[in-house]
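Following up on my earlier thread - several people asked me to post the actual chain instead of describing it. Fair enough. Here it is, all 257 residues.
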Amino acid sequence: MDTADTALTPPDIRLASPSEAQRRGLLGLAGNLVGPAAGPTQRILEEMVGAEKAQQVETAVTEHGVEAVTAAMTAILDRVTAAGAAGETPQTLWSSFRDGRALPDSPLSREQLAAVADTVLQPRRAVSQVELVEEIGKMAAAGGGDDRDLAARLGSPTHFGTETGAVRALLEGVTALRLTGEQLREMAAALRAGESVETHLSRQGYAPGVGRAFARDLAGVEAGIWLPQTVGRTAPATAQPAATQSTWTQGEERDEA
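Reply from S.P.:
Thanks for posting it. Predicted structure:
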């Protein structure tokens, strides 16, 4: 990861602020990965940070031991606590982890430390309805894909969580209408300009019923979504909402919208 990555840091970001009980659970995680609870712990970790990052945490435990991973996690938790006490914004903290400044001294590799940081921070960014349509358009132009492909294109190491159903409905609507990448790009521009999708599709020659049906698909993501991210991967440099919202989430599950 290089410092240039921070130029692409999205403005709307949420980071977890673990409660004392959550802190204890996180600090016991490394030990659980080598005990009888290893299987369930690994599955929970995969849900939190994705399979690749979960594997990196597990590899860190194997290569460096439980104590080294727990020490790294303690240092990251302490950094989060200090940031909150000092009034540091999640945006600033997120940037400092992404460029490596906030990562602790540790025998763990940069990738392993980033995976541990993801486990603690549980970062999410806001993805607007327009950005989703734009990215689906780019995916269509590149040959198509499913919801997990779309999540990866948006910088997520995992999936859409509770928003998966709404995203799949939107993708199914795009497939049913056989919308091309160019058509989706034009639709995103129309939505950004304030035009309804029904009006836009009507102007493109689609029957009113078709427009209403797709509008229902699109309504599922009208308010946008909060998508898991990672400090170890750069999110695509796509247009963001004008308003900046940078918040700490106390005791919040990572897949809630």
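Confidence is low (pLDDT under 50) at residues 1-10, 234-244, 252-257. That should answer part of your original question.
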